[in-house]
Amino acid sequence: MSRLSILLLIVLSFSPALSEVCNPEDREVLLQIKKELGNPFSLATWLPSTDCCKNKWVGVSCATHTQKYRVKHLVLSQLNLPKAYRIPPSIGDLPYLQSLVITATDNIVGTLPPTIAKLTKLRDITIRYTNISGQIPRFLSQIKTLESIEFTYNKLSGPLPAWLPSLPILSTINFDGNSFSGAIPDSFGSFRKGFSSLSLSNNRLNGKIPAAFANLDMKNVDLSHNMLEGDASMLFGSRKHTERIYLQNNLFAFDFGKVGLSKTLRILDLTQNRIYGTLPKGLTLLTSLTLLDVSHNNLCGEIPRGGSLQNTDVSFYAHNKCLCGSPLPKCKRI
């Protein structure tokens, strides 16, 4: 047998190892995460004999070139755990992780592990439909790369963290469906210029909205289903680029007729509040408006004619003090 043939056999015998791109340190961490979750069947594809970076490990994806196939995204979804487990502390040992998603797993419980603070490249963290509890920990403020935080439909409680605006590139917060209580911190009026979405619905928040919200230009605002009160007019403005405002089921009370309206407004839900005044005539100029619900308030006067206002369902105007005009009955002339 020639030397060339012998060399070829040696190369072929090692071809599986040569073709593997999964970083061995990341692979060991992932296997440890699986162990800390009780080796669920949902992660049956996580095998030591396969490559974690070749789309064979469910929920795992890797950077391809710039970071030499390090684990970049991790999604732990619908794990069907046989008993309650905490979020695995080993997650903090994936140094190149940019996106972490834990979702639809009732048996994920406890508080967030402090090791998450080690993820210094993390951009997005999403934990939804689990039973994690406690307050949002301060150690998240150490992750200066965070752009989006979504903790929705869990059992988180306590006050909203006043330190959140200290994250330099944070643009999206979604804390819907928890048990947060108390007032919205005044510091929330100092989010950076690029901050675009604040969603705090279905909690136990009370008190007034910080006046500094007038300085924010957010595309999406959802404060619905809380116990917030007083003025919310600072959320509006003709120079803003707001697309969606959800304020329903609170105790807001302000003169709606005096607010400026964003030209990009698409959805406005004010139902079940104490809002008074008239409907702004500017509503007729909103070409993108697809939903307007002002029912169950103290509004008065004639509905402005134009735009889509006459095509809105009657129920979206119902139960106001003295709102009238098409599509409601004609106004009474005195």
Element layout with pairings:
Elements: H1 3-13, H2 15-19, H3 24-36, E1 60-62, E2 71-77, E3 85-86, E4 99-103, E5 108-110, E6 124-128, E7 131-134, E8 148-152, E9 155-158, E10 172-174, E11 179-182, E12 197-199, E13 204-208, E14 220-222, E15 227-230, E16 244-246, E17 251-252, E18 267-269, E19 276-277, E20 291-293, E21 298-302, E22 322-324
Parallel strand pairs: 2-4, 3-5, 4-6, 5-7, 6-8, 7-9, 8-10, 9-11, 10-12, 11-13, 12-14, 13-15, 14-16, 15-17, 16-18, 18-20, 19-21, 21-22
Antiparallel strand pairs: 1-2
Please describe what this structure looks like.
It is built from three helices and 22 strands. By secondary structure, the protein is mostly beta strands. It has one domain: Leucine-rich repeat, LRR (right-handed beta-alpha superhelix), CATH 3.80.10.10. Strands 1-2-4-6-8-10-12-14-16-18-20 form an eleven-stranded mixed beta sheet, with no helix packed on it. An eight-stranded parallel beta sheet has the order 3-5-7-9-11-13-15-17, with no helix packed on it. The N and C termini lie far apart (about 110 Å). Keywords: Glycoprotein, Leucine-rich repeat, Membrane, Repeat, Signal. This is Leucine-rich repeat-containing N-terminal plant-type domain-containing protein. It is found in: Membrane. It comes from Psophocarpus tetragonolobus (Winged bean).
In short:
Residues 1-19 form the signal peptide. With 334 residues, the chain is mainly beta. Helices cover 9% and strands 24% of the residues.
